[in-house]
Each structure stands twice: as C-alpha cells, then as structure tokens.
C-alpha cells in the first residue's frame, strides 16, 4: 500500500478541523462598569455579569436595557449570599446574569438598582456598559 499525499491529506484535515470545532470562546465576566469602554465581544461568546445586591433591603437590580440586539439572556437573575455572611440575616450577596452573544452590532447593557414600588425615586445605583460585537 502506498501513501500518496492525497491519502494523507484527508485524515490530517479531519483531525485539524475537529480540533478547531472543539475550541470554546472564553467567558467574559464583569463585576462593574469599569471594564466597559466599550466591551468588545465576538459571536458565540458568553458574558457573565455579577453585581453586589441585597434584596432584603427591598432593592433589586432591574434590567432597563438588556442589549437584546446583540445579547441573548440564558436565564433569570441568580442571587447568592456572600460566603462570609451566609449565616447572617439581612446580609448582602450578589446577583448574576448570563448572556450569550447572538448577533453583530452595538448596544448598551443597562441596569438600575432600585426599590420596585418607588416608581418616582432615582435609582440608588446604576450599571451601564457599551457592547460591541464584531
């Protein structure tokens, strides 16, 4: 049996393509808006946003603009107590949202921290991040 270049090229091509297909894009994790100037992402990438939160005080993060033209939410907000204060009543924690980049374009991810029943009050905090997807 002779090994011609074309017979070697096909198996090698399959191995190379399989290796490329298995590579995942890195997950981008944000903890504040300081990393947004703007935040540059690529299609298929995952974005995890984690912000300090204390719902026992009545305050909640509200998605004012979910950047739906470029991001797809992967589920609801997930709240968790901080590890050092997990046994304390009324202690704070953090809220986390997960998104997947779904389309190219520019948008802005915006959240406000407020008490939902205080409709006319200014938010206690806000988060705003310009998103660029290429």
Explain this structure.
The protein contains one helix and nine strands; from the N terminus they run αβββββββββ. The N and C termini lie far apart (48 Å). 13% of the residues lie in helices and 42% in strands. It has one helix spanning 5-21, and strands at residues 28-30, 39-41, 46-53, 60-66, 71-73, 78-81, 93-101, 105-114, 125-133. Strands 1, 3, 5, 6 and 7 form a five-stranded mixed beta sheet that branches. The protein is mostly beta strands. It has one domain (25-133): Sandwich (Immunoglobulin-like). The radius of gyration is 22 Å and the shape is globular.
The H-and-E topology, N to C, reads as HEEEEEEEEE
Structural class based on helices, strands and sheet pairing:
mainly beta
Q: What is the number of helices?
A: 1
Question: What is the count of distinct domains?
Answer: 1
Q: Which shape, going by the Cα principal axes?
A: globular
Major β-sheet profile = 5 strands, mixed
Please identify, by name, the CATH architecture: Sandwich
The Cα radius of gyration reads 22 Å
Low-confidence parts: 5-20
Give the CATH topology.
Answer: Immunoglobulin-like
Instruction: Give helix % range.
Output: 10-25%
Question: What percentage of the residues does DSSP assign to strands (E)?
Answer: 35-45%
**How many β-strand runs?**
9
For the record, give the distance between the C-alpha atoms at the N and C termini, rounded to a whole number.
48 Å
Q: So what's the CATH class?
A: Mainly Beta
- The averaged pLDDT comes out at 85
């Amino acid at each position: 049996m002779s090994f011609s270049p074309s017979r070697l090229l096909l198996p090698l091509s399959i191995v190379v393509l399989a290796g490329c297909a298995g590579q995942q894009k890195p997950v981008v994790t944000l903890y504040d808006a300081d990393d947004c100037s703007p935040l540059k992402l690529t299609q298929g990438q995952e974005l995890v946003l984690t912000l300090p939160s204390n719902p026992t005080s009545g305050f909640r993060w509200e998605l004012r603009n979910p950047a739906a033209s470029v991001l797809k939410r992967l589920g609801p907000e997930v709240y968790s107590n901080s590890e050092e204060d997990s046994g304390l009543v009324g202690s704070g924690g953090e809220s986390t949202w997960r998104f997947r980049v779904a389309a190219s374009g520019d948008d802005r991810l915006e959240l406000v921290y407020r008490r939902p029943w205080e409709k006319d009050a200014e938010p206690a905090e806000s988060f705003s991040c310009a998103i660029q997807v290429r």
